[in-house]
Design a protein that fits this description.
By secondary structure, the chain is of the alpha+beta class. Strand 6 and strand 7 form a beta hairpin. 29% of the residues are buried. The chain is built from nine helices and seven strands. It folds into two domains: 72 residues, no CATH class; 143 residues, YojJ-like (1.
Length: 245
């Protein structure tokens, strides 16, 4: 192989690795703080060696041996989210499959009913970002969207009521899907796992997620890391119309 081609290939690989690492370390405050802590300990260890502080240098060297492994364990959710985010972005469709007016009505009626009965629900509607990676790990359905089916899925004690439903166009792609929970501190720290899951999927895709709280019956719309209250049919329908057009 030509020498210059090898140099270009080598440079490209280094650039890709650097880009990924920078994207990952800057993706969340927690990851960035961990990186700063590791750099700080490394600098202190070098200083201790230069000053002849043998005991301190030895302790810090031992710390540097085990800290990276500890960081990987602590940051496992962040690492997973970074990989999933990259995967979702690469699978954007050129044309989003939007649902019909009838589908919107079925969703609104189902969500309103579930809210009135304080039944928890998590419904994600695709736009451009494909959510196939989540659907493939869930129970595939490929069924027509209907109020009755949505209510049945989220009825307590049924096998699929704890996971999310993913809708593409007029079709329920799957039920029982699970997302990485968001680590954001923008909202109430006592927020439940459904709301954190909704925020999590909104942070890595352009989808819209509807959450119904089983404690209060409150309905929330989550999109692009933002959570909005929508406690009447008109408001839910308005959000769906803006999103599914």
């Amino acid at each position: 192989m030509d020498k210059w081609l090898l140099i270009l290939l080598d440079g490209y690989i280094v650039w890709m690795i650097t880009f990924f690492l920078l994207s990952f370390f800057l993706s969340s405050k927690r990851v960035f703080r961990m990186l700063l802590l590791l750099i700080f300990i490394y600098v202190i260890a070098l200083g201790a060696k230069q000053l002849g502080l043998d005991l301190s240098a030895r302790i810090l060297d031992y710390s540097l041996e085990y800290l990276p492994l500890m960081f990987v364990v602590i940051l496992a959710p962040d690492i997973r989210k970074s990989f999933e985010s990259a995967f979702v972005i690469d699978n954007k469709r050129d044309v989003a499959t939007m649902g019909s007016t009838e589908t919107k009505q079925h969703i609104v009626e189902a969500v309103s009913y579930l809210s009135s009965q304080n039944i928890g629900a998590l419904i994600t509607i695709e736009k451009h970002s494909s959510l196939d990676q989540y659907a493939e790990r869930a129970i595939m359905m490929n069924s027509q969207v209907s109020k009755e089916l949505l209510v049945n899925i989220f009825t307590p004690l049924t096998p699929l009521h704890d996971g999310a439903v993913i809708i593409r166009g007029d079709t329920i792609r799957c039920a029982g899907a699970y997302y990485v929970l968001s680590e954001t501190n923008k909202y109430d720290k006592t927020m439940g796992s459904r709301h954190r899951a909704a925020l999590g999927i909104s942070e890595v895709s352009d989808s819209l997620t509807i959450v119904v709280s089983e404690e209060t019956g409150t309905i929330s719309i989550v999109i692009e890391g933002i959570m909005l209250k929508a406690n009447d049919k008109e408001k839910i329908y308005e959000y769906l119309n803006m999103f599914m057009k």
